[in-house]
Amino acid sequence: MLTKFETKSNRVKGLAFHSSRPWVLASLHNGVVQLWDFRMGTLIDRFDEHDGPVRGVCFHQSQPLFVTGGDDYKIKVWNYKLRRCLFSLLGHLDYIRTVQFHVEHPWIVSASDDQTIRIWNWQQRSCVSVLTGHNHYVMCAQFHVKDDLVLSASLDQTVRVWDIGGLRKKTLPETVTPEERSAMGPPMPDPAGSSPGGSLSSKLGKAIPNMKVEDLFGGNDATVKYVLEGHDRGVNWASFHSTLPLIVSGADDRQVKLWRMNETKAWEVDTLRGHINNVSCALFHPKQELIISNSEDKSIRVWDMSKRQGVQTFRREHDRFWILAVHQESNLLAAGHDGGMIVFKLERERPAFTPISGGVLFVKDRYVRSFDYGSGKDTALMSIRRSGNSGGPAVHYNEQENMLLVCHDTDGGSYELYSVPRDGRSSDQSQECKRGAGSSAVFVARQRFAVLDKNRQILIKNFQNEVTKKCAPPHASTDCLFPVGTGMLLLRSEERISLFDVQQRKAVAELSTPAVKYVVWSPDNSHVALLSKHGVVIANKKLEQLCMVHETIRIKSGAWDGNEVFVYSTLNHIKYCLINGDSGIIRTLDVPVYISRVSGGTVHCLDREGKVRKMVVDVTECQFKLSLHKKEFERVIRIIKQSRLSGHAIIAYLQKKGFPQVALHFVSDEQTRFNLAVECGNVDIALQAAQALDSKENWHRLGAEALKHGNHQVVEMAYQRTKDMEKLSFLYLMTGNIDKLKKMLKIAEMRSDVMGRFHNALYLGDVPERVKLLVEAGHIPLAYITALTYGLTEQAEALSQQLTAAGLPLPEPLSPAPKMLYPALPISRDSNWPLLTVSKGTFERTLAGGGGGGATADSGLGDAGLDLDDMDGGGGWGDDDLDLDGTGGGGGGGGGDPLGDDADPLGGEGADGDGWGTEELDLGDLPGGSERASMGGGYYVAPNVGMPLTTRWSRESRLAADHAAAGSFESAMQLLQRQFGLARLEPLRGAFLALAASSQSVLAPAPSLPSLQAPLTRPGGWPCVCISLGSLVEKLKAAYGLVTGGKFAEALDAFKSIMGSIALALALSRQQVAELKELLGICREYITGLRLELLRRTLGADEKVRACELAAYFTHCNLQPAHMILALRSAMNISWKAKLKRSAAAFARRLLELNPKPEFAQTARKVIQACESDLTDDFTMAYDERNPFVVCNKSFVPIYRGSEIAYSSFCRAPYLPKFKGAVCEVDGIGQVGGEGTGFSEVDADGKFLS
Questions:
Q1: Residue 1230 near residue 982, CB atoms below 8 Å
Q2: What are residue 39's phi and psi, to 5 degrees?
Q3: Within its chain, how far is the Cα of 769 from the centroid?
Q4: Is 623 a domain residue?
Q5: For residue 1170, which of 506, 644, 759, 851 sits 20 to 30 Å off, Cα-Cα?
Q6: Boundary residue ending a domain (630, 655, 674)
Q7: Among candidates 1055, 1076, 1079, 1038, which has minimal Cα distance to 1227?
């Protein structure tokens, strides 16, 4: 059973599926009717007008109606669109058990405990027939799908079949066919003329003209056709087969009986036994030869009609089952029980398929078939022993060897390995196969496949089904394998997926994700889509998550369209997802499909019947977003011009991605155009839209935006439209528009705006107006002070007389030397404020017309010429004898192989313009002419002073090294702080001076002249930088030699010197940037390890535990194999001496995995042998080798995976979060928890790449 949906509620007594929508009705024992969307898992509505339990419910086939029947003796017809009951049908005298709509006619059939069956015309809202004959409760009644039959089951132990053909002909004469009308014969002549009194029928006809004689005496519109007897106790349910003349019934005798009928009789075919309590319901499966029954024994049983035996049983622990319902169009079933209901399938409907080159390989009807996309040819290749869709299909194909793996998940899981006929030749015979048990099996190499057995071990097998290798997965909860490529597997465990290297027998990458069901790799294997039940995770080949899309309904399948677009299907949509996380809908689906290939606008898929379908879809929106993501603006413009992309979704997308100017091309709605224009700062378009809309709010927003741009002409218009007088006056003040300020003063006077008048008078410096206004406002003292201050003696005297007459004292002047306040006049009054010239954006440049790449290679920094055979290690490693049997360690050495290494376009004859007809001017002799003639016959114009190269370097370069070479140390430090978030620059002082000195050459001219400086440049005119990748690699090899010789303090200084130089190194390509980053990581690991070792050597004899911990941490630094051997050997020795036998054995095993020299290996084996008898430690270290960790470079304690980590802004050394803000102990310049933009690089010609 595959449960699709489950509810928890009161006891469910009735169920009904909608014919087309994903809805199910559930009627409950408490009187509530619930309408559920089982696909979304949501309750749509509830109806609770019944009093008491509701036992029967049914949807209408085509109308928005459903009918219910309950213990309140009422039948109610509901409209789910109107969400109310339309009417009730009354007539039954006891509980109503079932109700059902007829498929074609306006009828409802109901069964009741009043021992009757009633047929109702719901359009006329009346009962058209009462079927009597049962002598106990009628438990169910239903119409036949095609024939004029009604089936009923009763507790009188019988099943009855009723013929209602007469009822149809009587009540629905329009449904009578010509054949039925001719079979009825001609109408009978009226016998009234032959008998004076007339016949009884004629007399009754005259007395009751609307009633036929048959109606008066019981009628013949519905008659019992068959009575099926055979059950020993009451029958609870009976059901017709949709196409065959079969009936199934279930009863309290715990039996399910199968009946057959023909035109004349009906008889029992067989009895199905297995239930141990009353059978509540029994139905035929609509598409398979199966019978489904449920019972009060808390089980659902599935029976094979042909074999007449049970094939599946599903049990619940505490809930009795009461009702079943089947969906006529799909393979869904529903069952109601004491605690709610479940919607389920009996088996998976997903076809077993796998894409192959140019086609798809799939399993259908026990045949392996191949479909070629080009020719459209469907070929049956061979038959297999059982159908691919039994028990959860999964197939994998090896195209090199033509081998097929078919996996089943029944009985704990199994697999079958087939050899597929070559060249598409079909074979009708069943192929021999190799079988085995395993929950999952996939191909892992050309002639190998991997199996996950029941013990959760990975078995690598050859095509003879023989085990060649056994691996333990990294997580004990691993439950599924997915293919990757040669030598790699994807392992699913709990909420994560792991990339497993079979050769190394370890996980090389992990990603946390919901339980993955399917994995789809892009054509170039650069990206992978991980499909779970409700989500799609896109990751790269290193399992680094790029994006995740969540869906509310189930995801079914998917395929890549190229390497950057993933197309997937849900139950009712085909959707897409780009690797940047953008997603959308391509089209809706009527039925679920399973995508096998996507190419442009064509989707190839399989449906649930195993048919290959081809769909043409519109991927314009997807290609538009992809082009925008890749910044292919020419293609974006072409899509805009050629397609009809529109809608708020596209506009919102462009706004979100920072392209509102592009969104303007899609919009015709003025309000939307206005919003977009304001967002992208296009004042002209915003003005046009604002004029069309003429909204105060829009004018206000336009004024604010135009003010930011200094467009005071538009600002003035906006303030005028919004009648914002204060802002308008202030705008005139700022622009020096005195004339308009005077008009504003008059407008304020006309509007009786006292404060407006005063402000405008103040802006204008109009003192008499201010005095006049203060007098009108009754502020005589203020008016007097104003007049006195600004020398208006006449007004001041008149005001003083008023104050004296009023008996008020005269105020004293505020300032002995008053100054006139008058606004300064700006230079520009009428034109808008000047703006900086801004280059066109990328999109605008593309509209106007206009028009690359890097190489990758292995840097070779990994081993830098280390030779394992010569790595005995110096005396500094402390490898003295363990005194196991008298053997000891020896000398050292190091080294190894190097790392590896025109004519003038206006010139020509007559270029002086002889043909222009100009003549010489007779100007006479000018003073000084002889002197100028002696100087060469013309004026001497001194050349402009050029820009020194050093100035150009500091102005135009984005490399800190160039600034340092130019002597501009301050700008170099600012660049370094921006790039790497550096907190301390003192350690770089020496590098700065070296760069400045090495970029200049000094030439000695004649002895009496000063030295000449000539800059040394690289291509493009930029300075030569003495710090290069090659020089750093040479230093790295020297540092490796110091580590090998055990000179740890000197090696630490060497690595720190390299790390400081990396910040100022010159990278001429993206490849070199990658190599610098790799070199930085190498230095970080070695500095961390060397600091651990040097700290360990400072500890006293009483700090034995801490010394062992530091030695153990050292072995988890990412060192070269030769140095790791020495580190493990040292840790093994220290642990052995400290009586940490378990730890010493662990280090010895790790040492043996690295294939050391024979004498090292012999010592390690002896340690393991000596420790095996007692694998215990005398004390516990803060160290867990099985839990991945990094070491905090401040406290030297492990930080285990999943814990919060703060990183250095430069070298990315890890720290505990409490050390954020501190200077990094590893590089000495970075800030813990800081951020930066990273490295910048240039190409060989000096052009900046980033």
A1: yes
A2: -75, -40
A3: 69
A4: yes
A5: 506
A6: 630
A7: 1055
Domain contains 224? yes
Among 366, 378, 371, which Cα is nearest to 431's? 366
Q: What is the DSSP string of 820-883?
A: ---PPPPS-SSSPPP----PPPHHHHHHH------------TTTTT--GGG----GGG------
Alpha carbons within 13 angstroms on the beta-carbon side of residue 951 total: 4
d(CA 1122, CA 1045): 12
Q: One-letter amino acid identity for 722?
A: T
Instruction: Give backbone dihedrals phi and psi of 28, rounded to 5 degrees, phi first.
Output: -105, 165
513/509 Cα distance (integer angstroms): 13
pLDDT tier for residue 138 given thresholds of 50, 70 and 90? very high
Q: Are strands 583-588 and 478-485 parallel, antiparallel or unpaired?
A: unpaired
Written as six digits, the tokens of 652 are 């919102």
Where is mean pLDDT largest: 300-304, 814-818, 1015-1019? 300-304
Q: What's the pLDDT tens digit per position in 898-929?
A: 333 343 333 443 434 443 433 443 434 444 44
Query: In this predicted model, what pLDDT tens digit does every residue of 156-172 receive, in sequence order?
Result: 999 999 999 888 888 88
Structure tokens at 152: 């009923």
pLDDT of residue 777: 83
Note the pLDDT tens digit of each residue in 617-656.
Answer: 988 888 888 888 888 877 887 877 777 676 667 777 777 7
Give the pLDDT band (50/70/90) at residue 964: confident
> If we measure between CA atoms, which residue out of 100, 89, 88 comes closest to residue 149?
100
| Of 470 and 790, the one with more pLDDT | 470
Answer yes or no: are the C-beta atoms of 1152 and 1144 closer than 8 Å: no
DSSP state of 988: G
C-alpha 510/C-alpha 638 separation (Å) is 41
The DSSP annotation for 238-295 comes to EEE-SSSSEEEEEETTSEEEEEEE-SS-EEEEEEEE--SS-EEEEEE-SSSSEEEEEE
Question: What's the chain's Rg over C-alpha atoms?
Answer: 46
Q: Which domain holds residue 237?
A: 2-172+213-345
- Mapped onto helix, strand or coil, the DSSP state of residue 515 is coil
What's the rounded Cα separation, in Å, for the pair 1087 and 610? Answer: 61
The helix (H) or strand (E) run that includes residue 607 is: none
CB contact at 8 A, 251 and 231: yes
The model scores a pTM over 0.85 = no
CA atoms lying within 13 Å on the CB side of residue 67: 26
Contact (Cβ atoms closer than 8 angstroms) between residue 106 and residue 121: yes
> Tokens representing 980?
């790497």
How far is it, in rounded angstroms, from Cα 897 to Cα 621?
Answer: 55
Residue 597 located in a structural domain: yes
Tokens of 295: 């019972």
Two structure tokens written together for 1207: 């990183």
Domain for residue 101, yes or no? Answer: yes
Tokens of 574: 């085909």
CATH code, domain with 134: 2.130.10.10
pLDDT-derived band at 212 (thresholds 50, 70, 90) equals: very low
pLDDT grade, residue 577 (50/70/90)? very high
Q: Which residue has the tokens 């995770």?
A: 537
DSSP per position, 86-101: EEEEE--SS-EEEEEE
**Residue 319 is which amino acid?**
D
What's the number of domains the chain is made of? Answer: 2
CA distance 714 to 682: 12
**Final residue in a domain of this structure, among 613, 630, 647:** 630
Full DSSP string of 1174-1193: ---BSS--S--TTS-EEE-T
- Contact by Cβ (8 Å): 233, 251: yes
**Nearest to residue 1199, comparing CAs of 1190, 1208, 1207?**
1190
8-state DSSP, 418: E
Provide the CB-side half-sphere exposure for 691 (13 A, CA). Answer: 7
Average pLDDT, the chain: 81
